[in-house]
Amino acid sequence: MLRITCPHCGARDELEFSYRGDATVTRPGPDADAGAFHDYLYLRRNPRGWQVEWWQHNGGCRAFLKVLRHTVTHEVRAVAAATETLEVPGA
């Protein structure tokens, strides 16, 4: 089980959180074509290694967080508020 340290509530079990997806994907602008929106919605990377992800603390403060998690070992290296920036190591 993952332990995620919420910046507002402290360390909690992953059962209190909901995974919301890759935090590095950016939404196409309003003038983008349908192909760009298709790619945004359906084509995602499946990296092996460190990834910045969106998580929501549903069982606590309900805040959206960015979590730096290793996709193989599930190690959580850093947690930040949604407005903060997290960098992937070695990227």
Automatic annotation (TrEMBL):
GO terms classed as biological process: tetrahydrofolate metabolic process
A GO MF term: sarcosine oxidase activity
UniProt cross-references to Pfam families, sorted A to Z: SoxD
The protein's name in its UniProt record: Sarcosine oxidase subunit delta
